[in-house]
What we know:
alpha/beta
Amino acid sequence: MQNEEGRKRDGDVLLHFQVITDTHVTADPEHTYNRNLGRALEDIKRQAPDSDGIMHVGDITDHGHMEEYAEFQRIWREHGTGLPVSYFASGNHDVSMGHWPARLGAYLDATKMSGPYHDHWVKGYHFIFLGSEQEIELFAYLSETQLSWLDAKLSEGSDAARPAFVFLHQPLKDTVAGSYESQKWYGVVQDEALKDVLSKYRHAILFTGHTHWELGALNTMYDGHDRLPIMFNAASVAYLWTDEDEHKDGSHGLFVDVYADRVIIRGRDFASGMWLENARFECEISDLSE
């Protein structure tokens, strides 16, 4: 396979998937956010016709309303031909802006996920999705049961030669872009408890959304600081935010290629249909467990 610069890579791609987040679909089919999602799905089909999956990191809808989920399903159905299997995390806009059981039920009905947290195996790689279990406006609440479940899931077939991919809408504090205290967009009640679990599994790679920080901004990738797994901010399909703490029109997502010895993550600008030169990361698998 050739990368975006056209150079031949050693070995074959073993797994290829995309990470999108914060689509904020509204009830208005002509809304910019809705159009951005349709365009992103078409771009993924063109760029990755052999994709093994699309992983959505939450804030599927803008308010968690039934009519927004109906519009989300219309968009996915309209652009569905050629799309790979898709899995979804919940975001605060999906499940935390109204009556909790009703909001959770709407998310589960629309996405067909099995619960607020769930896991899947794709081509021998583990994909683990976390999610809030309480109605909190911005933060995620992860129960002790969920944290124990995560611990058990990450230990299943634990193999430093095979990364495990974890998805949670809200980032951990002081990790990726937008999550620093001055930026205010971190958001896990059990921040330290989750870090304690993740610290045991350095072969994991965590993808988060919520901040909307554009790809290529400072701290798009967090290297773990010798304690935690690598983490990535996945930006937003609906609109972006900058290091200057300003709104920016735009639509970004990540393409992930897994080789036997490394993982390559590339940022994609869905609005322009271009690769983001300042958002390309290469993680040696041998380094993930150190």
